[in-house]
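for ur thesis appendix - Quinol:cytochrome C oxidoreductase. copy paste whatever u need, i formatted it the way the template wanted (i think)
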Amino acid sequence: MISWRKHYKKTLIAIGLLLSTSASFYGQDGDPKNGEKLFKANCTACHALDKQVIGPPLKGVVERVKTEGGVDKDWLHKWIKDNKALRASGDKYANEIFEKYNKTEMQVFPNLSDKDIDDILAFTTNPPAPEPEKTAETTPAGDTAAAAPADKTTTNIVIISLLAIAGLLVWILVKLRQLVKLGQSEDLAGLNESRVRSFKEMYEKFHYIGKAALAILAILAAYGVWNWLMWIGVYKGYKPEQPIYFSHKIHAGENKIDCQLCHSSAKYGKVSEIPSMNVCMNCHRTISEYNGKYLEPGKDKAFYDGEIQKIYAATGWDPAKQQYTGKTQPVEWTRIHNMPDFVYFNHSQHVVAGEQAIINSFNKKNPNNKIDVVCKACHGKIDTMNVVQMANDFTMGWCIECHRTTEVDMNNGYNKEYFKNLHDKLKKQYPQDGGKITVDAIGGLECGKCHY
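the 3d part is after this line
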C-alpha cells in the first residue's frame, strides 16, 4: 500500500514536470502582449500569423518546427538571431526552409534578447484577442439617452411648423375670397377706368423707371458674363473618383508617411509625378489587408482589402505564390492638378529654394491654421483628406498675391551672396518695410518667369 502511494506520488510529480515543460516549450513562458509589440516592430514586414507573405505564417510555429524538423525552441532562438550562421553550420532543417521559400534570406536579429524571442513565440502560440476597432461612426452608449430628447424636440418643431403653414394657407384662402367678392361689386368700376391696358401706355407712364431698370439689368448681366469668363478653368474643390481608392488620411495622416516617399520628383524635378504602382508595391507586397483602426464612414475593412487587391491586379502580383505573373493592367488615374501648357511652374524651385519662406509666410497669414510641410501651402492639408481635392484657385492672381506677400529668406547662403547688392538697394528703396524683400522684388512678377 505504501509503495503504491509512493509510486502514485512520483507519477503526479512526473506529469506536473511534463506539463510545465510542455507549456514552456510551446511558448507559454513568454509575455504574449509584449510579444505582439515586438512582432509588429520586427516581423510584419515579411510575416503574418495566419498566411504566407514573404515568409511562412508564424501562428503555431513552435509546434510546427517540432513536427516538421524535430527541433525545439532553442533552435528557433538560433534561427531568429542569425539564420545565416545556422545554415552555414550545415543544419539540415535550416537549409530545407531556405530552399522551400525561394532562398529568400531572412533578416538577422542579434538585438533581440532571449526573453524578447520567448515573448514573440508566446504571441505566435497564443495571440491575445484583438481589441474592437473604433469607426468614425461609433456613437458612445451614453449618447443614446441624450439623442431621444433631441429627436422629440425636432418632432415638435416639425409639427408646429406644419400647423403654422396650414394656418397661413387658410388665411390666404379667406383673402382670395374677399378679393373675388370685391371684383363682383361696383366699387371696382372706378379702378378699371384707370387701369393700363397696353404695354405702350405702361411704357409712356413709367419710361424713366423702365430705362433705369434696363440699365441696371445690362450692368448686372455684363458683370455676370465677365465673372463667369474669369472663372473658366478654376476648379477649386474638384475631387474626382479614382479607379483605385487611395486615402491620404490613412497613409499620410494615420501612418505619417512622408509626401516625398511617393512623390519623389516633387523636390528635385519640375513636375510632381503620379507614383507608379511599383511604388505602392514597396509596402503592399507585404501589406495584403487593412488592419488599421481608422475606418472612413460608410466603408469597412472589406472595402479597403478589395482596393489592395486592385493594386495586385494592376501589377500582376500573385499574393499566394509571392511572385509576379507578368499580366499587368494599367491604371487610368484622373488628374486633379494640371497647369496650362503656357505656364511654367517648377516644383523643385518652390520645395527646395522657397520651402522655409513659403511655410513662414503661410503661417504668418494663417496663425490658426499653420502648416508643417511646404506641400500644404498649395495643396491644402492632404493628410486629412480621404479623397484628394483641389484646395486652392491656382489662378494667376492667386500666384501673384503669393509672390507679393512671401518674403525671401535672405539668411539662405545662396540668396545672401547672390542678392547682396540688390538687398542693400532695396533697403534704401523700401525703408518703410525695413528692407524686406518679397518674391516680386527679385523678379517674381516678370511675365517671362512664368510664361514662355
